[in-house]
Specification:
This protein is 51% helix and 7% strand. The chain has helices at 2-10, 20-36, 40-43, 79-83, 86-91, 106-121, 127-139, 144-151, 159-163, 166-179; strands spanning 51-54, 57-62, 73-76. Strand 1 (51-54) and strand 2 form a beta hairpin. It is globular, with a radius of gyration of 16 Å.
């Protein structure tokens, strides 16, 4: 957990000379990964319009398929992301990509965030965020089915998943994400 806190604390200071989108990627992508288990490759493609209120639940809409998830999905925001001002940031972006300028190669942005992460914490792969998310979810008492649904594994394939309405699952996921402990990085983290 010390490494996670070190990385997340470092995200609060943008790298010197970084462009606004690069600074935003550094600021938010590791936090989103920590609280959703999403891959950097999914997160980097988010647009302002991918953050919305769905029946009173603030969600991220991951519209791009990744190497792991193979599907689109809605993931509720952790209250700590909202508390830190993520909604205000996304509202200012509207239809724009949150972390990409026109012409940016998503893979290069992901590589840069990975390099900054390794600079802070040593050799830490981006999949470590997903593993951390799964571990924290299990410790919080979340079923593996819901944990998989949140971070994009294949719970949708089960019969039970199709027998209940989508808003049931969204509410359940919101409840489970809210159980994850808030990651404190020091008194000046907000």
């Amino acid at each position: 957990m010390r490494i996670v806190r070190s990385i997340l604390a470092a995200t609060l200071t943008p790298p010197s000379g970084s462009h606004p989108k690069a600074a935003a990627a550094w600021r938010w992508m590791p936090w989103i990964a920590a609280y959703t288990g999403a891959e950097f490759g999914e997160i980097v493609r988010l647009r302002g319009s991918d953050v919305s209120d769905s029946e009173g639940i603030w969600v991220l809409r991951f519209a791009q398929q990744s190497s792991i998830t193979h599907r689109r999905r809605l993931v509720p925001l952790h209250p700590h992301l909202i508390e830190q001002g993520f909604l205000e940031f996304t509202r200012s972006q509207a239809e724009e990509h949150l972390f990409l300028d026109d012409g940016d190669d998503p893979a290069k942005v992901v590589a840069k965030i990975g390099a900054l992460t390794r600079k802070v914490a040593g050799n830490t792969a981006s999949q470590a965020w997903r593993r951390r998310f799964v571990s924290q979810s299990c410790l919080a008492g979340t079923s593996i089915e819901l944990t998989n649904e949140i971070h994009g594994r294949s719970f949708r394939a089960s019969k039970l998943r199709h027998e209940l309405p989508d808003n049931y699952w969204l509410k359940r996921m919101q409840e489970e994400i809210a159980k994850l402990p808030q990651i404190e990085v020091g008194p000046a983290h907000l």
